[in-house]
Amino acid sequence: MKLKIIVHDAEEGGYWAEVPALPGCASQGETLEEVLANMREAIEGCLSVDAQTSEPGARVMEIAI
User: Model pTM?
Assistant: First the structure.
């Protein structure tokens, strides 16, 4: 899966990034490499589903895009 991210220069130095397709999914880092690594982790967290909190009768499934 590929997602586009927008990387911004942070006012205090370093960078912060966001994923337009996943509102609220953002991270930061001191270098571009760090912000990219942090974004991978943030995206995984934003896309993860806790099966224990799903509604009764609901199914947790995976789909490749």
Answer: 0.74
